[in-house]
Amino acid sequence: MTFETLGLSTEILRAVADQGYSEPTPIQQQAIPLILQGRDLLATAQTGTGKTASFTLPLLHRLGSNRRPQRRSSSPRALILTPTRELAAQVGESVQTYGQYLPMRSAIVYGGVKIGPQIQKLRRGVDILIATPGRLLDHLGQGTLTLEQVEVLVLDEGDRMLDMGFLPDIRKILAQLPQQRQTMLFSATFSPAIKRLAADLLTDPVQVEVAPHNTAAETVEQLVHPVDRHRKRELLSHMIGYRNWGQVLVFTRTKHGANRLAEQLAKDGLKTEAIHGNKSQAARSRALAKFKQGSVQVLVATDIAARGLDIDHLPHVVNFELPMVPEDYVHRIGRTGRAGKEGQAISLVSPEEYTLLRGIERLLKRDLPKDVVPGYEPTAPLHSEVEPPSRRRAPSQRYRSGGREQPRSQNRPVRATPAPVKHTKIPVPRSSGKQIHSA
Fold it and tell me: 200: which residues sit within 8 A by CB, 6+ positions away?
């Protein structure tokens, strides 16, 4: 199958060809025809498989085939919501790239930056708006835009968009959208509870799932290094230096922990930066740019970076601390092994984290291989009875929504293991052509 057979417009095919892509990925093969038919969609696929292009390409085709005279409008025709600023920027870049030959305007709005320039751009009119919920509500509150003409709504990383602290903002936004619209939810993971909630937002939706639910790409080698908690930083520095790692993304649970680890690794002689929700958008963008360029060797991040970071050929991801929610592990390690490339995901696990590790293994339906690094043997085996880290999130640890702090729901417990779900795997045809994975 080629992009030509999907029925996309000449302008979009030209933009796709400019990027060197010839064949759609499995998620694109399944999703694009359904979106072109106007169907509501609930799509699940592994990270790095081209989900963004799965909705940007048919979205651009739909708006381009039903063109309107260029005019200044306070309402976009399409709205794409994302949970993080980084993901909003990535989606906006994809819209610009594949829509470069179409006479359409797009804009990105998120928190952490001045709102004035965004207002000026919105006043000039916009067809496609990519936004984080918090900053979008700011604009709606100030009357700088309306949503009365939205024809298509996309929720990217839908599980996070509909989960916990994001839900109140999402409901406020949905209340201002037309009832008659096309709605799509895309994500790498969907819990049964989120699927039930999504059913209330979609009209006769089609579910597309091109890989087993909550799985990591087969190109990612996963490995656990048991180690005492107080020796994790020492082991991490040893691995980076001894194994001559040139680029590594390291995940911690908290912002304070990210800052502390980055400072310690810098003292060890490693060029290190940290990104998290308390950093300004300018600082986060600079750190990410340096990391991509290679001037920063280690990037320490919280889970805010688990979604939306698209780094070409990232070879190593390290879980310095395991996430409290098992699904977040899938998103973390999905930063490597993208676009069919091989990658390695290593987790440094102390005995206190054994319960979290078992939750991840139950989610993946497999035991992760364990390898004790000589000289860093833990004082107790992983399965020993050690008090696990508290599952109660500190008041300062909140998910961000476009620059606005969003507390987690106090009524919903953190899920250790989701309920089992039946899945149907769509056969994936073998292909030799270049595919759009990173978009």
Answer: none
> Tokens 């001559």 map to which residue?
244
Report whether 72 contacts 22 (CB < 8 A): no
Neighbouring residues of 192: CB distance < 8 A, sequence distance ≥ 6: 418, 419, 421
Range of the structural domain that residue 318 is part of: 220-386
Query: 125: phi > 0 → left, psi -120 to 50 → alpha, else beta; which?
Result: left
Task: At 109, list the tokens.
Answer: 């709005």
> How is residue 20 annotated by DSSP?
T
Give pLDDT < 50 ranges for the chain.
Answer: 385, 391-430
Q: Cα separations (Å) of 187 from 36, 308, 333, 373?
A: 19, 11, 15, 35
Q: How far is CA 323 from CA 62, 87, 332, 356, 366, in A?
A: 39, 20, 9, 7, 18
Q: Are residues 185 and 157 in the same domain?
A: yes
User: Using CA atoms, how far apart are residues 187 and 202, in angstroms rounded to an integer?
Assistant: 15
Q: 107: number of CA atoms within 13 Å, CB side?
A: 24
Q: Are 122 and 145 a contacting pair, CB within 8 Å? A: yes
Same domain, 275 and 167: no
Residues 152 and 238 grouped into a single domain = no
State the pLDDT at residue 212: 55
Residues 62 and 165 in one domain: yes
> Does pTM top 0.70 for this prediction?
no
User: Which of 386, 405, 429 is the C-terminal boundary of a domain?
Assistant: 386
